[in-house]
What we know:
Layout: H1 2-28, H2 35-49, E1 54-58, H3 64-92, H4 99-107, H5 109-113, E2 118-122
Antiparallel strand pairs: 1-2
Helix pairs in contact: 1-2, 3-4
Amino acid sequence: MKTILNVIWLILSGFWLFLAYLAAGALLCITIIGIPFGIAAFRIGVYALWPFGYTTIERRDAGAPSCLGNVLWLVLAGWWLAIGHIVTGLLLCVTIIGIPFGIANFKLIPVSLFPLGREIVPTDQPFAAR
Length: 130
C-alpha cells in the first residue's frame, strides 16, 4: 500500500516538491554559511519525494548549533514552507481520495519548520537510529 501511495504522491506533487527543495538546496549551498541549510533542504526534498513509510525523529546529539540554525531557518524560510504545506494539505483533504496525501503534507510541516537536528527513518524502525 505504501508503494501505491508513494507512486500517486510522486505523480501528483512529490516530484515538484522534490525539485523545489533541490533548487533551494543548490542555492543555499552556494555560500559557505548556507551549506547546512542546503543539506537540510536536500534531506527534506528526498523525504518529500517518497514520504509514505518514513518518519522523522529528533537527534539528541544535535546540540546548540542546530537549535540556532533552526531559529534562523524558521524566520527566513520555515514559515513560508509550512504555510505552503498547510494550504496544499487542506486542498488535498477536500476529496476523500486526497486525504492520505493531505496528511502526508501535514507530516512534512514539522520538518519544514525545524529541519536541523532531525533524521528521516523508516516507520517500522523509528527508534533504531537512536
